[in-house]
Amino acid sequence: MENGRIVADKGLREVIAADTHLSDIDGEKGTLSYVGYEIDDLAAHSSFEEVVHLLHHLELPTARQLEALSAFLAAERDLHPFQVQLMGTLAEQTSPMSMLRTSVSASSAFDPDGWDESEDAQARKALRLIAKTASLLTTYHRLRTGMEIVPPNPALGHAADFLWMLHGEEPDPEDVRVLDTTFVLYADHTMNASTFTARIVASTLADMFSAITAAIGTLKGPLHGGANEEAMKSFEEVGKPENAEAYVRDRLERHEKIFGFGHAVYKTYDPRATVLKRLSREACDRAGKAQLHEIAEAIEVATFEQKGLYPNVDFYAAAVFHVLGIPTDLMTPVFAAARMAGWTAHVREQYADNKVIRPGSRYIGPPERTWTPVDQRG
Ligand code: ACO
């Protein structure tokens, strides 16, 4: 305590910064739930669209509600012509996460609800952001690789349409199932760094686009969402399972992180990683890339033996994304596409019960002193 205030550690680990109805983690037991439903249950049975409804309405949808939400998302996957035009420049000039940050910010100018900050308008803005993120990523990727843009197919679900727009081929139903489950697993995760960022921005009553733009900037870093791309690079560097032990040892000796391991909250296996490990094994086998999964498992064994760390969500997700044909530098943006569900729900929750988030800081600079004219300094 200092001057009647609690002094938190640098990472605010012990601070509870908000009440939420959306998700809950038990870091000791390794459990995660969305609005009361265990993540394993949702991963096994729910589609991403169902989870979007759950996070935004706090209930699973009825059949009619699901149909309406799916139709809204499908229609909104169409981009505004300006977004496509802007993409031409972004595809040439910038990295995928910077593109996404800029495109989401620019999207505020084209949202039909404009500056309407009513609850209904916020709900529609949230769904548009969730829908359009998929198309922003695929449009960017097609343009930067000199391919024709593939327009959305409203007959497809969100995960299937993403794969369709990315590859321009009818997606394999098994690939769709794997991606849809991965979207479910990534959809929300309590007060992680990017969600906290979004809530801070929303707490000033700035608009949703500002909050989400800031969240994307936060997710970009390799200590947060950027870890899946780094994990993929590590699989490539390791090359074969026999090299994993030495790779891990070398990095640890150099005090470098093994990306996709460790977690601020989980002190045991991340429950999302359990599901993703299974998906990775299945998807890699199906794609004839069993060795990729074996490399990942060998890194997991070595990292646990040498440092006692468990994989987090980003580790096996990297292998899954790779075999679905998602380029490495789109892996963090795909994480963002799924997390858009949680970010927007948290922003709406913040608006609904708001107080400006404004922690204190402890001054550790020089004691009070007197200003001197410039010719008397030095
Ligand atoms: N590789 C090597 N050592 C690690 C790792 C890792 N991945 N993670 C933690 N450690 C070590 C630290 O070096 C430190 O060791 P020391 O006590 O010997 O100095 C100890 O474990 C504690 O680490 P902290 O960084 O203090 O743990 P914290 O809980 O603050 O960090 C974090 C969590 C940032 C996720 C960390 O584990 C990390 O950097 N992991 C790698 C990046 C990553 O995978 N990020 C994705 C997280 S999940 C997500 O955001 C979606």
How would you describe what is shown here?
This protein is an all-alpha fold. It has two domains: 23-223 and 330-352, Citrate Synthase, domain 1 (Orthogonal Bundle), CATH 1.10.580.10; 227-323, Cytochrome P450-Terp, domain 2 (Cytochrome p450-Terp, domain 2, Orthogonal Bundle). The protein is built from 16 helices and three strands. The chain has a three-stranded antiparallel sheet with strand order 1-2-3. Helix 4 (81-93) runs antiparallel to helix 5 (96-107) and helix 11 (227-238) packs across helix 15. The relative contact order is 0.14. The model has no long low-confidence stretch (mean pLDDT 96). The structure holds acetyl coenzyme *A (ACO).
Total DSSP E strands? 3
CATH-defined topology of the largest domain: Citrate Synthase, domain 1
Radius of gyration, in Å, reads: 22 Å
Number of domains: 2
- Principal-axes shape call: globular
Oligomer class:
single chain
Integer average pLDDT: 96
The level 1 CATH classification of the largest domain is Mainly Alpha
Report strand order across the widest sheet: 1-2-3
H/I helix tally: 16
Main sheet? Answer: 3 strands, antiparallel
What would you call the structural class?
Answer: mainly alpha
What is the CATH architecture term of the largest domain?
Answer: Orthogonal Bundle
Bound molecules: acetyl coenzyme *A
Strand portion: under 5%
Low-confidence stretches: none
Distance between the amino and carboxyl termini: 37 Å
Superfamily (CATH H level) name of the largest domain: Citrate Synthase, domain 1
- H-E string: EEEHHHHHHHHHHHHHHHH
Helix content: 55-70%
